[in-house]
Amino acid sequence: QVQLVESGGGLVQAGGSLRLACAASTSILSLTDMGWYRQAPGKQRELVAEITNRGTTNYAVSVKGRFTISKDNTKNTMYLQMNSLKREDTAVYYCRLYIFGQIYWGQGTQVTVSP
């Protein structure tokens, strides 16, 4: 069973930067499809960014050019570098992993962007 632990969330001023990390309990991260999702209060969970086992990336229009998703297979960790943060980026951010037909979710980390 794969376990995912997010970290790096917190409070940041608008225009600032934050880096989220998702540590996975697997040594075959190169075989996985992974992504970051977020959910704001009263809203549905939405895709922020994803990266496939082949390295292909995809971003939500609202974050493209500001966020960068990456994986470090040697550290079994996925990252989300967030720059030029806006108030509307405030949400709980979740790590998602897909492997061998199974989906795994982390518990989420809160990101709050102040004016």
Chain-wise SSE layout:
Blueprint: E1 4-7, E2 10-13, E3 18-24, E4 33-39, E5 46-51, E6 57-59, E7 67-72, E8 77-82, E9 91-99, E10 102-105, E11 109-114
Parallel strand pairs: 2-11
Antiparallel strand pairs: 1-3, 3-8, 4-5, 4-9, 5-6, 7-8, 9-10, 9-11
Short synopsis of the structure:
With 115 residues, the protein is mainly β. The chain has strands at 4-7, 10-13, 18-24, 33-39, 46-51, 57-59, 67-72, 77-82, 91-99, 102-105, 109-114. Strands 2, 4, 5, 6, 9, 10 and 11 form a seven-stranded mixed beta sheet that branches.
Question: What does this protein structure show overall?
Answer:
The chain is mainly beta. Helices cover 0% and strands 54% of the residues. Strands 2, 4, 5, 6, 9, 10 and 11 form a seven-stranded mixed beta sheet that branches. The protein has a four-stranded antiparallel beta sheet with strand order 1-3-8-7, with no helix packed on it. A hairpin with a 5-residue loop joins strand 5 and strand 6. The termini are far apart. The model has no long low-confidence stretch (mean pLDDT 96).
Overall strand count: 11
Name the beta content range: over 45%
Sheet having the most strands: 7 strands, mixed
Rg estimate, integer Å: 13 Å
Helix-strand topology string:
EEEEEEEEEEE
Assign a percent range to the helix content: under 10%
Report the principal-axis shape.
Answer: globular
State mean pLDDT (0 to 100 scale).
96
Can you tell me the residue ranges where pLDDT is under 50 for at least 5 consecutive residues? none
Number of helices: 0
Distance between termini? 40 Å
Structural class of the secondary elements? mainly beta
